[in-house]
Amino acid sequence: MDSQKVDMFILTNSKFFESHHVSQIRDRLLQVDDSKWGLIQTLQFNDPTTSLIVSLIGGNLGIDRFIIGDVGLGVGKLLTCGGFGIWAIIDWFLIMGATREKNLTKLQQVLY
Amino acid sequence: MFSGRNKLYLLLFIACAAGYSWIFYDSATISAHSKPVEGCLLKHIAGIPCPSCGSTRSVLALMQGNLIQSLYINPFGILIALLMLIVPVWIIADLVTKRKTLFDYYRQAERLMKKPRIAFPLLFLVLVNWIWNITKGL
Question: What is the ipTM of this complex?
Answer without folding.
Answer: 0.80
